[in-house]
Amino acid sequence: MAKAATDNQQATMDFAEHQRTFSTFLRLTKWGIIIVVSVLISLAAGTVGGMGLAGFILVLIVLLGLGYFIF
Description:
mainly alpha; about 75% helix; 2 helices; about 70 residues
């Protein structure tokens, strides 16, 4: 069974692992937001804009490309 840290002991923390985990979390969050916004704009262009499926795919590819190069 694991020992609990007492008042005299400090729990050790792997700071490098914490940094890698946080960096991965931020990267996944950023790309999740980029993908969701791109899909929403593409859906609007495909349906409201009257561009259809081809327009949806074209706008999605362009927006994801812009997101890759900008961020």
